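Running log. JK asked me to keep both predictions on one page so they can be read side by side. First protein, sequence followed by its tokens:
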Amino acid sequence: MTDTDWMNSISDPDMQRLGQICPPRRYARGERVYRRGEPAGSLHILLEGHVKLAQPGWLGNERVLTVCGPDDFFGENFLTGAATCLADAVCLTDHTVVCPVSREQFLEVATQLPHVALTFAMVLARRNADLEERLHVMTQPVQVRLARVMAELAVRLGEDTGEGVYHLRLDLRHDEIASMANASRVSATQAISAWRAQDLVLGTRGDYRVNVRGLEALIEQLELEALE
């Protein structure tokens, strides 16, 4: 998911009107915003908390596609005419706040709040570019994929503490991080252990200090080694 930051470009009156057209809903940790296979009837705007999108894996395990944070959109496939949801949307935090936008509400937003509708369109267009980049990343070595996932999560969902270090509060297991990189749980555990030894990732599940600058240097080194 892209770090949209779209709310900062919308005026307070427009945000208030958007909330009137599409009232937000609150969820607790572990609740599902929707389930895979349910009718795809709404675009969802995440206002607070974290939501993971996941599908069943080939071996019956869970495959995490991505984790959404505040300002992110998910479930936008309904705009393409998709009949059903393609993944489970599971809340990872208490007090998760989501604003569902149905087709009818989307048309009302487009009519009454054209600037908001244009912002939505820009975000969704940017999403296509992100997907193309993700496809490229999946062809890289597993250690590179894992490092990119951790760095991307830290920058997008973490708090910048300065000097390239981010505080990431995110309750994901090693196997969930691994699935985002199309890797095994063992690979993820080994990678995170190695990063700890290099002071690149400190902390444990749910509370990490991620040296993104260091991870980016490691990614560059691994990519160069793969070319040799």
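And the second, directly underneath as requested:
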Amino acid sequence: MDDKQLMTISQFAKAVGTTRRTLLFYDQKGIFKPKKAMANGYRYYGYEQIYKMNFILGLRDLGLSVGNIKDYLNDNSSETLNRKLGELKEKVQTRIKNLQQVLAILDQKEEDNTQLTNVGFYVVKKIFFPLREFWCSDFKVDCSEKEIAQAYSNFYQRLGAGIMANNMLSGFLTDLPQAQANRYADAGFRIIKEKSFASQVNMPVMNQANGEYVVVKVKNDGAGIEKGLAALSDFVAQEGLKIGNDLWQFNLGVDIKRLGLTENSILAYQII
């Protein structure tokens, strides 16, 4: 072929809409060679090579790795390409799912949770809660600070997609009948996070029943929580109420300090 019918690497890069650097990279990886290579390093390409290069660039745009493309070019059957594209499809579907979760988090609102901000410290009041769904961890008993931190980390890693940072309710569900303050430190618990999108996550789900709850705002240290529980117990006795066995402890905000808790939280029991 007459060299006048060949293109320099810069001319070829322009013709296929890529860069000189990309062509050099593909040459080094053995994916796409020039038609002619000179001893001085100059590379020349034929016009008929445009079609193959466009196909390679198309595979890269789809997301195939350089290794996948090389595998296909070494065995350019439809079956090989379909297998590579099938693997890519699974990755794309996972990415779409993750992005949908992120979008749901960004779109989520806080309308149902604003009433909790109006609760005063250690002032018990009644609030109506709608039915809510929560992702929850396995039941834990007698955990050290290290074990709680690890369980918390594992829980949010399983949920993924930045769910920890959204404004939906989070905290703990503790097995503590009758707001017994002296049993709080040793009570069993689950880590909980309000569901914020409809997609399926491999995590147990539990409901918080709709109805009236007694709630109180507390400082999240041992003394503060015990003080809040005592206030709840006194209020329930004075009002002649009966409450359930589950203590719902909702973090206020997302800035976790220690033991999976923010600086302040809301303690709540359903009135039954």
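Observation for JK regarding the second prediction: The radius of gyration is 30 Å.
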